[in-house]
Design a protein that fits this description.
heterotrimer; A mainly alpha (177); B mainly alpha (101); C mainly alpha (662); A: 177 residues; mainly alpha; 2 domains; 72% helix; C: 662 residues; three-stranded antiparallel sheet
Chain lengths: 177, 101, 662
């Protein structure tokens, strides 16, 4: 077992563990912070898939943007949530969340069995165009975005702007929806 | 080299955790976090397969766009949650059932 | 000659009186330049491609030959003088701007009409002229009779336009071109076309020969409406409802001349039948109008009928082939008739002032109310005298030259005719004498004798601008402007200009001398007679009282009952027809509609029954079924987001399971 594999499985364990903690912990603030731990370790997994730029973007966007947003939302819708903080931690599976748990497990079973039954190497291109560890992907992605994916890029930027304006409009004070 | 199958299994587990959170949590923010987990699971799959696409970087760019869109979605969703809170004085999705017949 | 386009632009752009005068002066100067350059020179021709319909290419352009150059000079000259005159005449009118605008538009369209080289474009400007004359006649639109007159003029013109359009269509079909030069020029399509065995052949295209006559007739029909010839003359006297300056411009000099001009422009197309028709129409018109003018009492009406009469003369001249004499007469007539109208306008204008000042009521246009004005308005009197002499055709005036040339030509022509046609020149002479008589009557009644109103203040001479314009026109009424020899028509340079070679008249030299001499002599006798009859204060009493009761007088006075005839022939049947159709409408159509309505009502009752008990029953049944279904299914609608999500995922899961494990 090589070092990179050890690191990979460690990161995977971090992702899955913190995700599980997120859904089990009753303390909302903690679960939010654990959510970010999970996301950061997920970005480590991206690096193992030779996507260093995506990893950086993941950290910047999620940690820089979404974390702040969620904390603010949490603080603004405070009263009832803060009351919840003091509640005792319940079991992992209570009655109300039983259907969700069963459903999720069934889905997991289906997915895992589907993945294990699939022969990935059957796809021809998987064997050929693999990135080498030293490849400069950022350069490549920049060129691709500005040439091949220019239209989706512009569309996404327009969409982003719309979303921001819409969010600002929705969150405006003193207005009933 | 990490096999793609491992990535896929990790993403499947992550997806199901997110699914569980989205279905059974009694807090809108937690539901949102569950949805984010599901999105990230999908992105992980894109990235894993994008490692085999040296020429056009399709998987990585879709992942990038998905991250961006997810962030935008989070912004809008949080704004909606705030409004819902202002209106109903709660963010428990179970208590918001005006759509019921 | 690129300047000519500037003429158009400037006439179009005119607005106020100052600009208007300026631009008309501009166009006068320009057209004078054009005139000197083109006169007796090579005809000039410019054209641009306008548009294409199928294989037919329409070009629009300018054709300047002697005819159009002369006409444009005439039009712009007369228009200039009338503009000058209008400054004073229309000064107190509240709608002055509108007046100038209409007048400018009229001048523009008239000048354009004169110079364009294409029949279709000509037709457009022809319409424009008719339309602007409608506007100008109805200028005082608050007066009811002015509106009526404008409508009448417009309708009559439209009838004529129809003829013109028909002619254009025939020509286009036959020759495939509407270009005047190509059609009527030397070696043009018309002269190359020939008639063989009753077939009219032109190049590859051929038609029955009767179409040639029809085309000529159609154009002639257009011309008689515009020039107010016999069957369609009734609009012109009514058109006097407009301002007098307009009457002078339109009904003396330009618009009515458009008909004659059209005939001159397309002269080669007319065949023998049409020419004969022209002669008949011309002579009838001129004689009839002259007799009517004998007994009218309205100043402007007399002049209007005299215009019709003179136009009849021109038509007559055209018909007998005296193309050049007709145009010569057109030119001279334009000037002296314009002068007559302007003088009449001055008289009326001043009498209006007098009426207001003296505060008495009388009709300012009725010559019975005038008299003795020569003492008050000597300059107007002089101008009027000259113009009348020209109209009467007395020696030393321009009218003498042109009118006698027509008479001579007609005698010449008649010598080759037989039967009834040989009477034409005698009729013309008679008309000419009648003309002398009525104009003498006019002069004596208006200017001699004593004023027929009780006067406390004198009637004043018109203002100086009006006088200047009158004097300018007087110049054109005397012979030296047209010919150095006051007795010889052939020396007139205009006559030479209009036709390439002046026919040597005088088959009989004797006739040539005798006719003018005789006419002049009788004219003088008539003038003397008129002076005896009318110059006395109550001259109407003795002599005319006898005549007044007679049938002839009645006939003349009511303008030969033409208007009544129109009334009887067209208007009353039309009224009757409309009444019949109204009855038809009320009784039959309404009955049908009512019947239909009643049956629809019955059907409606029936369908209401069906609707209420059958269809509604079915619908209600369906409604209650779906209601019960909805009641069952509503329990699935919890309104909770997460329940929906669960359902969704379950469905997806089921799909996967069936997909992968079966």
């Amino acid at each position: 077992m090589r070092v990179e594999q050890i690191i990979f499985y460690a990161l995977a364990a971090m992702v899955l563990g913190s995700a599980l903690l997120v859904v089990t912990i009753r303390n909302l603030v903690r679960s939010i912070f654990l959510f970010f731990v999970a996301l950061i370790s997920l970005s480590g997994l991206y690096i193992f898939a030779s996507a260093d730029f995506i990893a950086i973007a993941q950290i910047v966007i999620y940690v820089g943007g979404v974390l702040v947003l969620m904390l603010f939302a949490f603080l603004l819708s405070n009263k009832e949530l803060l009351n919840n903080l003091s509640r005792p931690v319940n079991r992992l599976i209570n009655i109300s969340s039983l259907p969700g748990f069963l459903l999720a497990s069934a889905f997991l079973f289906v997915l895992i069995s589907a993945i294990l039954n699939t022969e990935i190497s059957w796809l021809g291109y998987v064997q050929q165009n693999h990135f080498q560890p030293g490849d400069n992907t950022v350069h490549n992605i920049g060129i691709s975005i500005m040439t091949r994916y220019l239209l989706p890029f512009e569309a996404v930027s327009m969409f982003l702007m719309m979303a921001l304006i819409g969010a600002a409009h929705l969150a405006r004070k003193g207005q009933k929806i | 080299m990490i096999p793609v199958t491992h990535f896929m299994i990790i993403s499947a587990i992550l997806f199901c955790i997110g699914l569980y959170a989205a279905i059974s949590k009694r807090n809108a923010i937690m539901v949102l976090i569950g949805i984010e987990f599901m999105i990230n699971a999908a992105i992980l799959n894109f990235v894993a397969f994008g490692a085999y696409d040296k020429e056009v970087n399709g998987g990585q760019i879709v992942a990038l766009f998905a991250i961006v869109l997810a962030a935008a979605g989070v912004a809008v969703a949080l704004a909606i949650i705030l409004n819902v809170y202002k209106y109903y004085k709660t963010i428990d999705p179970d208590k918001i059932h005006n759509l019921r017949d | 000659m690129p300047l000519i386009s500037f003429v158009w632009v400037s006439t179009l752009a005119k607005r106020g009186s100052g600009i208007s005068i300026l631009s008309i002066l501009c166009s006068l100067i320009l057209s004078a330049i054009v005139f000197t350059r083109v006169w007796n020179g090579q005809p000039q021709h410019f054209q641009v491609h306008w548009f294409s319909v199928g294989s037919y290419h329409l070009t629009a352009g300018i054709l300047l030959n002697n005819l159009s150059a002369g006409m444009i000079l005439l039009v712009s000259g007369v228009a200039f003088i009338v503009h000058l005159y209008s400054i004073q005449y229309m000064r107190s009118d509240p709608y002055l701007r509108r007046y100038w605008r209409y007048l400018s538009l009229f001048c523009f369209s008239m000048m354009a009409l004169v110079v364009v080289d294409n029949l279709l474009v000509l037709y457009m400007f022809w319409e424009l002229v008719g339309f602007t004359s409608y506007l100008l006649i109805g200028f005082w639109y608050k007066r009811d009779y002015a509106v009526q007159a404008a409508k009448k003029a417009f309708i009559f013109n439209r009838i004529g336009d129809l003829g013109f359009l028909a002619g254009i269509m025939i020509l286009l079909n036959q020759f495939g071109t509407l270009n005047i030069t190509e059609l009527f020029g030397d070696g043009g399509a018309i002269s190359n076309a020939m008639i063989e065995d009753g077939v009219w052949i032109s190049g590859t295209h051929q038609m029955p020969a009767v179409w040639l006559t029809l085309a000529g007739g159609a154009f002639f029909f257009g011309a008689i409406a515009k020039s107010a010839q016999f069957p369609l003359h009734a609009w012109l006297p009514d058109a006097m409802a407009g301002p007098t300056s307009v009457s002078s411009l339109i009904h003396a000099a330009t618009m009515v001349a458009a008909g004659i001009f059209l005939i001159a422009r397309i002269y080669p197309i007319f065949d023998q039948n049409i020419l004969m028709l022209m002669v008949i129409t011309g002579s009838i018109t001129s004689f009839m109008a002259a007799t009517i003018a004998l007994v009218q009492n309205d100043l402007k009406q007399i002049l209007a009928f005299s215009t019709i009469s003179q136009l009849g003369f021109m038509m007559l001249a055209m018909g007998i082939g005296a193309y050049d004499a007709a145009l010569f007469h057109l030119t001279t007539h334009a000037f002296f008739k314009c002068l007559l109208f302007l003088c009449a306008g001055a008289v009326i204008h001043q009498l209006e002032y007098f009426k207001q000042a003296a505060k008495i009521e009388f009709d300012c246009q009725d010559i019975r109310n005038m008299g003795g004005l020569k003492n008050y308005m000597p300059i107007t009197f002089t101008a009027m005298l000259f113009a009348s002499m020209a109209l009467a055709g007395l020696p030393f005036t321009s009218g003498y030259l042109s009118k006698d040339s027509i008479l001579l030509y007609s005698f010449d022509w008649a010598s080759s005719q037989t039967g009834l046609m040989s009477l034409v020149p005698y009729l013309a002479v008679l008309t000419s004498l009648a003309t002398t008589f009525y104009i003498a009557r006019l002069i004596f009644k208006v200017f001699f004798g004593s004023f027929r109103q009780k006067q406390r203040i004198p009637v004043l001479e018109p203002p100086s601008i009006m006088k200047v314009s009158l004097m300018l026109l007087v110049l054109f009424c005397v012979f030296p402007m047209f010919s150095w020899n006051p007795f010889s028509v052939e020396n007139s340079w205009i006559l030479k200009g209009f036709s390439a070679d002046v026919q040597v008249l005088s088959q009989s030299r004797l006739l040539h001398i005798l006719v003018p001499l005789l006419v002049t002599f009788v004219s003088f006798a008539l003038i003397y007679l008129a002076s005896i009859v009318y110059s006395k204060r109550d001259g109407d009493g003795s002599v005319t009282q006898v005549a007044r009761d007679s049938f002839i007088y009645e006939l003349f006075y009511h303008q030969w009952f033409i208007n009544k005839l129109y009334n009887v022939i067209f208007v009353i049947p039309l009224m009757y027809l409309s009444r019949v159709s109204s009855i038809l409408d009320n009784k039959i159509v309404d009955g049908l509609v009512n019947g239909a309505g009643r049956s629809v009502l019955f059907l409606g009752a029936l369908s209401t029954f069906v609707d209420r008990y059958i269809i509604d029953g079915i619908v209600n049944l369906l409604g209650s079924i779906s209601k019960s279904i909805g009641n069952v299914t509503r329990h699935f609608q919890s309104g909770r987001v997460q329940h929906y999500m669960i359902t969704m995922i379950l469905l997806l899961l089921t799909f996967f399971i069936f997909k992968y494990f079966s």
